[in-house]
Input
Amino acid sequence: MMRSGAGLWQMAWGLLPLGIVLVSRDRFTLSILAVASTQALYVVSWDVLSGSGRISLGHALPFGCGAYATALVSGWGLVPPAPAIAVGALAGIAAGALQAALGARLPRIGLAIVTLAVAECAHEIAGMLQIAGPGGLVIGEEAGVTATVFPADETAAARLAAAALTVAVIGVLWMVRSRLGLAMRTVEADDRGATASGIDVTRIREVAFVIAGGLAGLAGGLAASLAGRAAPPMLSLEPSLFAIAAAGIGGRGSIVGPALTAFAASAALQWFDLPVMARLALYALVLIGMELTASRGRRRRDARLHPLREDGAR
Amino acid sequence: MEAAFQLLIGGTLTGAEYALAAVGMVLILRVGRGVNLAHGAFMALGAYLAYQTSMSGRSIFVGAVPAAAAGLVLGGVVERVLMRPVRGGPLARAVVLLGLGILAEEGFLLVWGDSPHSVPFRLAPLLVGRMVINTDQAIGVAITAALLGTMALGIRTRPGLALRAVIANPEIAELSGIDVGRVRTITFAGGCAMGAVAGAFLSPLLTISPTMGGGQLALTLAMVLVGGAGRIGGILAASLGVGVASTAVGFYLTPAWSDILALLLVAAAIVSHPQGTRGRCR
Output
């Protein structure tokens, strides 16, 4: 259990994005910060899942499902724009539940590939999806589905997104300190030990998937509302890699670190207007660098614990 | 009915060519203990090199030679520089290889641009009754069969025994004097070369673009996982089956559906046989 002082500091850091949004006045900056807040919320959702010891390579699935659900219900005028974002969160929960049903019992590598395959499937289908939009127009395919833009002005949009991020960070930090959070951390540290302690490991992982899916769906719904569109790239590999890279730099499982890293990185990437391929290459370099750095640490630990073992045999 | 037979022939030939890439992936999975998520990039590299040689009027079989050489050299370098230092299990290796695959796409974009390319068939097709057999593909399948046959014989030699020992138990193999690291490097390089050669053979059937590796990876992975990572016979059968199915789906629907089919097969195979991705011996 973390000390309460450390928890207060974490919460204080979690308020930083909202503070930056509240003091910003420039409309361009606010529009960048709004998107950065949704991206940070999305990365927090990935970090919740990784906190249960599961690495998803297809976390874009709940994000994209949330975006599409929000765009469909708000674009059609079935639901007012604000509740449409909640519909996005529900769609994210459903996508998270699907990932849990498929992958909660799988080994880590199996889960990673299954989540990647299912998200890529959804990405391909979204690229071909044709839907009758309002006024009888056929919408969809690569252009995506239009959503009602909400909130219309940049200040309100940035404040809404930053407030959602802040509430999510505080809520997740509270959850980490609850019995559920303790169980998740135990499962992450040692799933066999957790089973021996009477924890239902599969159940805990399923709950983590559902919570992470809900938060990712909320982020997707917000992203679609802010952009006025849900498009196939929201389901592509890029958002999934962004989450892994940001969480890796910010400190996996620490919630606030990944959130702030994602907030800063997303703002910087928008500011420099990097093309998608360059972003992907950047994320790929971060992933490779992250694993090599982590491996160096593991090798040092192995050398300390098993000094007689040779490298090649492992 | 005729169209169905034609699809069956075309799909079987295509699946047989994919078998080379699938067996290469299995070698890496079992010896290197990692899912090569960059395998599609090596196939794309082979396809690009075949395209480059076809520009000077040569056939894909000439292009397969530089593809094999590039696969061997780059695969060896990747194993030594990226795979060997990685600790943390198959997932850590898979993540590094996924990153490498993405970097390769960027490399293809820089060298060959983002516009799609195609490679023509050079030889006239064979007519058997009313069925058309693509001669380039038939030769590709014959070379694939010869390569896989040579490999099957090679498994029974002394270096093949070392390979099997590393698969069975790397620590005991090390104790027996086998250089496990070297066996892994050679196997990884060989597996990548097989992927690149398969990419060269398949190049006339594919739209060559920087992002083509994703679809190739999905199909190859589907063949490996459906066939079972420990059974070469199963992989060959799965290659033919998946090849026919994806060709039929691509013909009756759109090519994107054949990617979706492959991805669904990957997910279904892992969910039904979770240990398959670990490359365990069976």
About this structure: The first helix of chain A runs from residue 4 to 14. Chain A touches chain B through 46 residues (CB under 8 Å). The first strand of chain A starts at residue 130 and ends at 132.
